[in-house]
């Protein structure tokens, strides 16, 4: 029974992270709603399946940044270098926001990080509050016209090939690590996400 609430609230948390990254470049969640939901689901499933594996738990943030960068590059046509810059920046900003929220929670409500970790209910409530605050702040920033909204320069000639290579190499590398640790479920989840990006990339290139 732990699976459903964990993945549900983690998915909300992941979606808030995606919104933060999108807002940096003046995109709305509605610009890529269903792909964003897919990526949020992948992130939450990774958190659940790898939470007991210390090595993979440390590796997950980098996989999440890669997924965010591919979301920007493949679906929203942001140049790949700007995609990674925005993904790292947005990820760092959201983690910092979570840390500040935790400190405020400790100072105002006397609820520490240890309390949140010890009680799943408190953890879920904390995720909901932080996610909702992130949504509200991003909505305000977007309505004020804040963010890097200028048109990007033309992408370099072989960028689709580079993106495809990044997807394949990342999938193979992470896949080999997961197989060695027998974490097959997470391998399937990540592979599905990567195949999705490859299909979208091919469709866009063939339609040109």
- What helical percentage do the residues reach? over 70%
Overall average residue pLDDT? 79
Give the beta-strand count: 0
Provide the low-confidence segments as ranges.
Answer: none
Strand content: under 5%
Count of helical segments?
8
**Count of domains:** 1
The secondary-structure element order is HHHHHHHH
**From the alpha-carbon coordinates, what is the Rg to the nearest angstrom?**
18 Å
Structural class: mainly alpha
Can you tell me about this structure?
Keywords: Membrane, Transmembrane, Transmembrane helix. The chain crosses the membrane at residues 6-25, 32-49, 55-76, 88-112, 124-141, 161-178, 184-202. The structure is a single chain. By secondary structure, this protein is mainly alpha-helical. The chain has one domain (3-151). The chain has eight helices and no strands. Helix 1 (3-24) packs across helix 4 (80-109). It is globular, with a radius of gyration of 18 Å. It starts with a helix and ends with a helix. The model has no long low-confidence stretch (mean pLDDT 79).
């Amino acid at each position: 029974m732990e699976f459903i609430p964990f993945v549900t609230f983690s998915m909300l948390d992941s979606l808030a992270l995606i919104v933060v990254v999108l807002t940096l470049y003046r995109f709305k969640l509605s610009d890529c709603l269903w792909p964003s939901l897919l990526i949020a689901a992948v992130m939450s499933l990774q958190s659940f399946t790898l939470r007991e594996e210390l090595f993979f738990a440390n590796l997950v943030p980098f996989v999440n940044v890669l997924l965010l960068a591919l979301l920007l590059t493949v679906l929203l046509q942001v140049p790949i270098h700007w995609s990674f810059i925005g993904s790292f920046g947005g990820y760092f900003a959201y983690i910092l926001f979570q840390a500040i929220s935790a400190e405020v929670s400790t100072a105002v409500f006397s609820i520490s990080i240890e309390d949140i970790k010890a009680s799943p209910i408190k953890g879920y409530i904390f995720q909901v509050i932080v996610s909702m605050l992130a949504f509200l702040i991003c909505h305000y920033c977007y309505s004020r016209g804040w963010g890097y909204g200028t048109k990007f320069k033309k992408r370099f000639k072989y960028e689709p090939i580079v993106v495809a290579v990044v997807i394949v190499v990342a999938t193979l590398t992470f896949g080999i690590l997961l197989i060695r640790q027998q974490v097959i479920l997470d391998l399937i989840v990540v592979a599905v996400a990567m195949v999705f990006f490859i299909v979208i990339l091919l469709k866009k290139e063939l339609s040109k």
